[in-house]
Design brief:
Layout: E1 2-6, H1 18-26, E2 31-38, E3 44-46, H2 53-56, H3 67-74, H4 79-89, E4 92-97, H5 106-117, H6 119-125, E5 129-133, H7 136-143, E6 148-153, H8 156-161, E7 166-170, H9 171-176, H10 180-183, E8 188-192, H11 197-203, E9 210-213, H12 216-224
Length: 231
């Protein structure tokens, strides 16, 4: 079972910043997860919300700001920088494209172009780069360009009817409907966002490909028994 740091080691450090992802490396995460949006200058930035209020305390639309503004005001990291870090550290990368957004399918195109630009380096490092999304259209755009994908599913019915080979399910859904483990047809199951000790222990011996967690240090300790200091 792989451990993916949700927005980096975001329980302890500011989400989707270089320090959060570096900390995830230090505590033994197998990979990173990030959300991406397009900036005013058409750069791909790692940012969850459509605006900056929650992160900076002041309001600004991500789509109306430049990448440099977001780096300066929110310590944001670009997808290119994160991808280079993942390649260097040999960490898998899950990239969630947000929808609906004003940029529409342009976000997938930008992400795919970036992946293809670094494809040789990605292959040499042996890592997997996967686009994940709630949007079937987003995943279709990625699949047609030869990019690995996983469908993010919020509810149990979505898991049952999904024809995606790989899916990402909410831990709350699985705790409520554990029979889904027996009936889901997906080849790979990712589970998000798994933070509590109880949930991590519950998943430990199940056929899960990866857990997505804000607390990669805790997850590593529980799942593999490896310790990295205090949580």
């Amino acid at each position: 079972m792989k451990i993916f740091a949700h927005r980096g080691f975001s329980h302890k450090y500011p989400e989707m910043t270089r320090i959060a992802y570096q900390a995830a490396i230090d505590v033994g995460a197998d990979g990173f997860e990030c959300d991406v949006r397009l900036t005013k200058d058409k750069k791909v930035i790692c940012f969850h919300d459509g605006n900056t209020m929650r992160i900076t305390g002041s309001y600004g639309l991500v789509s109306k700001m430049s990448a440099q503004e977001l780096i300066d005001k929110a310590s944001a990291i670009t997808l290119e920088e994160l991808l280079m870090l993942a390649i260097e550290a040999k960490k898998d990368l899950l990239i969630e494209t947000k929808h609906p957004v004003v940029s529409g399918g342009a976000i997938e195109k930008a992400v795919i172009d970036l992946i293809n630009h670094y494809r040789e380096a990605i292959e040499r490092s042996g890592i997997e780069v996967v686009i994940i999304s709630f949007s079937y259209l987003a995943l279709r755009r990625a699949k047609t360009r030869g990019i690995k994908t996983a469908k993010v599913v919020r509810y149990g019915l979505g898991a049952l009817i999904s024809r995606s080979k790989d899916i990402a399910l909410n831990i709350k859904t699985l705790r409520r409907y554990p029979f889904l483990f027996r009936v889901i047809r997906a080849e790979r199951i990712y589970v998000w966002t798994v933070n509590s000790k109880d949930d991590l222990k519950w998943l430990k011996n199940r056929e899960i490909y990866g857990v997505i967690t804000d607390r990669p240090k805790r997850a590593r300790r529980i799942i593999s028994g490896r310790k990295f200091g205090h949580e």
